[in-house]
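If your schedule permits, I should be very grateful for your opinion on a structural question. Please examine both parts with care and let me know of anything in them that strikes you as inconsistent. The record follows directly beneath this note:
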Amino acid sequence: MPEIKTQLALDKLQNGGGILYPFRNGYEKLGDILNTIPSDAWRYNEAVLGGLVLYLVKQGQAARAKSYLRARNLKIQKTYQFEFLELMVALHLGEKINEKKLTVWRRLERELPLQDTLLLGLYYNVMMAMLVRIGNLEEAKNAGQQAISCFREEGHSYLEHFIHIHLADLDVIEGRLRRAMRGLSTAKRCLANSRLSYGNEVEVIEIIELAILYERGDFKKVRENSARLRESLLKGDSWSELFLQLTRISVLSIYFTEGLEAAQEELEVFQADYVRRHAERATTIDVLSAMIWRLEWNTSEAELNINTLSSSDINSSIGSFLFADQQIIFGEKNDLKYSSPRGKIIEDLQIAHSASGKKRRDAMERAFQNAIRESQIAPFLENRDAFLGMSTQIASISSINRKPTMLRFVNKIMRAISQSYTIPEFLGKIGFNRKQFMVSAALQAGSTNKQIARQLGIKEATVKYHLTKMYKMAKVSKRSELIDFISKNSFFINN
């Protein structure tokens, strides 16, 4: 009798699509089948192996899923379906991609049966994510459109909704926020039409919505929801790129609102969770850490971190963009040309950072004009060094002052930048205010009083006034002693 029951379950699995069973019938029914058949059936039946692997991936256990694919005593004849499973697991684990792997995966496309539009759609879905990870965005977009065509032919709006999420995430990275919102609306409509839900689909969409809010400067909203969404990703379906997007917006939101120590703690939490989920460290989180070091004017440590990495080490598109930005800032790369709206803002901010006079004002004006189209604020805070002292220069940019809407937007950015300098606890305890902290940061960067005045948009006499107060609070008598006092009490140095 047990044998008959087992055979019926195996027949049901095979006739219901084999490894594609969960995509046609749902993961709940797949779980029922897996609970019915012998625990070692995966060793000799490819459909069972595929079902088990996909079920584990859906439960957030991609590392465990990989162990089944790597088991020694598999008694199955490996087909293109097995290769497809390896590709799926590699996606969810965030594995590093090299040319050899890409060649294998591209060859797989030619082996897939043309009439199986569901399998083809899933292949293009995964390849889209992989191509995004290595920065091949145009090919990724093409793969996404092919996936949409396949899923629409199949009538599978549930799977289609994931593609729109992928594309929306890509739009956020590139700074096309309005298009990202339209993509998420389409994703929600597809999900509603499918009448399916296997887990955390709503939360996945919410992460991209939060990424849009982050770009527009709503750091409070990100902070309020970050922990809940991280737990959702850890317990349910996700891919590494999504986890790293949440990491980026969460850590930076905390940094800009709560300061260095809180951001560092959040970095450690996300890194530990990434290792738990994906079985290796996220180099993207290491790049994010270097970025924060730079924002703290600790350029030596930031540059050291960047120099230990190479572009081949980075395991996400977000990481690749962040890494390239830091390389340019440290003078290690100057040939990158940005084509995306967000990239152009960053490019102009980097020009402004090293320029002066009219060239600086022109670069800032271009950055403002590009940013207001999408109400984008975050890139300015991520490159806030370029803004120190701009408050006085903005008054001379006539095209801004002639447009009330533009002027309000610029003032909003300037307020956000000013508020993003969170006073370290040790300085706050002895009485430093935000302006004095900014003076101290400029001191550590090696600026003279005259340079500090220009950077902060204040008079040189005001700089001297703040320095006198700071000497008294730190109980020192000269500039070098003040710098030494601040350095010795720095969070990064002590930890």
In short: Confidence is low (pLDDT under 50) at residues 491-495. The two ends are 64 Å apart (CA to CA). Residues 341-420 form one domain.
